[in-house]
Specification:
Helix 1 crosses helix 5 (175-190). This protein has helices at residues 8-18, 43-59, 75-88, 100-112, 175-190, and strands at residues 64-70, 93-96, 134-137, 148-151, 165-171, 194-200, 206-208. 34% of the residues lie in helices and 17% in strands.
Length: 210
Amino acid sequence: MLRGGITFVALVWLTRAIGGQAARRVSPFPVSVSIERAGTTSGTDVRNRGKCRETREESAVSTEVLFYHLTRQPLEEVLPGLLLKCLERDWKVVVQCGSEERCAALDAHLWSFSDHEFLPHGTIADGFPEHQPVFLTVGQDNPNSAEVRFLVDRAVPPPIDGYGRVVVMFDGNDQEALADARQHWKLFKGQGAEVTYWQQRDGGGWERKA
């Protein structure tokens, strides 16, 4: 355990995710935005600065992106509870899976994970996707106008504009999943999204690490 409560695993993950940005910062703004010359104060420069600020504000993504690092419990044990919390807040959800097989397995699991909880959901096979409170898919569609999107099983992120929250869940024991998560971290940071990193506690629940 390092100072400030950050574990060695979390520190290594974040160091790799940042990928040396202290030496080479990636701009979250379009390349077309011109760089102001030092020392110029003409009226044209002032107008250009205003345009730069407007372009930056428009290009920044207001979506909150949460990375959930699974280290102690598998996805099947964690996902249902998070989905139920979304439904309690009247949020519609899309769960994007990495494969058809994984999507079908999660669909079956969400019907049977508990004898006491009911989690309404569906896939394209069930029809009426626009009416599903939780929609499972392998595509990048959003037929139920969901506010929250979960990315599981190494799913490729779609454009995230329009979502209030995106949740990336990845297996800490899968090196390929870790590499994907680092790339997604850099992608969302580069888009100007508010990105946070969460790790499972020993006794359950989540602790924010970054």
